[in-house]
């Protein structure tokens, strides 16, 4: 995703991530090491490093990822954030203006992290979780909304719409929050393979008090992952109907391409919400693995054991709308738009 920071504005890039809250970009502290266009803060007349004593901007009580410097005499407001894949980024918190295209709306005092250390293959992160530091909450603090649609065609350009431009389409799902965590937990009560319920108690998908159990949606996850019990139950239903699966690469549930798909359509995986069933498009769930004869289910066993996450690949060509004020998620299968408005 491209955003425009500074005065004069500079185009910088970041990965859009609904599973985290901070926005951070590569700054010229990494000069000579940047693989992507970086933000040169010294060229912006509006750039300000945030002082830790400024409690309106250095909001350490709202997130564990922002802290004050522990070095005596240093009043820097710092951030240090880690991700599930083991990568991390750290740097200083800063403010500057952000310009939103195409209508060129200018928003002052936008808070973001100016990175001094981050993974070389990550240009930045555009955090869109439910937190005061996230992109949607900063742009529209009183009525935060956003939507996005990821096309299954790699060459297509995808757009994120914020505020009044957000498309809240389709049926809605109640979203649950855990403390100050930015995550979007969905109110899931079960799963289906075609018409068959997998044998898992609804509590397996319920958000727990410690937030370690539940079913999240996260654009930063490439593939869906299921808790240990849910994954085993899903695997069992498929095994009963199609025989023992084969493991190919990182995917545990694979079948030969010529069987049983020649005579039987691919199984449809459904997620049961409180009032309705959302069926995942089989083309987003099953994939032929290279030159092999196997087609694999694009679902992993969760490394967190108890947590389930709906990943981005399973939602290709689905408009996803978030209403943060009212805690609703909207899902609508569609051909993703290729224009901004």
What does this structure look like?
The protein is mostly beta strands and 341 residues long. It folds into two domains: 2-139, Acid Proteases (Cathepsin D, subunit A, domain 1, Beta Barrel), CATH 2.40.70.10; 165-333, Beta Barrel (Cathepsin D, subunit A, domain 1), CATH 2.40.70. It is built from three helices and 28 strands. The protein has helices spanning 135-139, 228-242, 282-285; strands spanning 2-5, 10-13, 15-17, 23-26, 48-49, 66-68, 77-82, 88-100, 105-117, 124-127, 145-149, 160-162, 171-176, 184-186, 188-193, 196-197, 214-217, 224-226, 246-248, 251-256, 269-273, 277-279, 286-288, 294-297, 299-301, 307-310, 318-323, 328-333. Strands 1, 2, 3, 4, 5, 6, 7, 8, 9 and 10 form a ten-stranded mixed β-sheet that branches. It has an eight-stranded mixed β-sheet with strand order 12-11-27-28-13-14-17-26. A four-stranded antiparallel β-sheet has the order 16-15-21-22, with helices on one face. The longest helix is centred in the C-terminal third of the chain and has 15 residues, at 228-242. The two termini are 16 Å apart. The mean pLDDT is 90.
Sheet with the most strands?
Answer: 10 strands, mixed
Measure the end-to-end span. Answer: 16 Å
Q: Can you tell me the residue ranges where pLDDT is under 50 for at least 5 consecutive residues?
A: none
- What is the arithmetic mean of pLDDT? 90
CATH level 4 superfamily of the largest domain: Acid Proteases
Categorize the overall geometry.
elongated
Could you say what the CATH architecture of the largest domain is? Beta Barrel
What name does CATH use for the topology of the largest domain? Cathepsin D, subunit A, domain 1
Structural class: mainly beta
User: Can you tell me the number of structural domains?
Assistant: 2
Return Rg in Å: 21 Å
| CATH secondary-structure class of the largest domain | Mainly Beta
Total beta strands: 28
Number of DSSP helical runs: 3
Helix content: under 10%
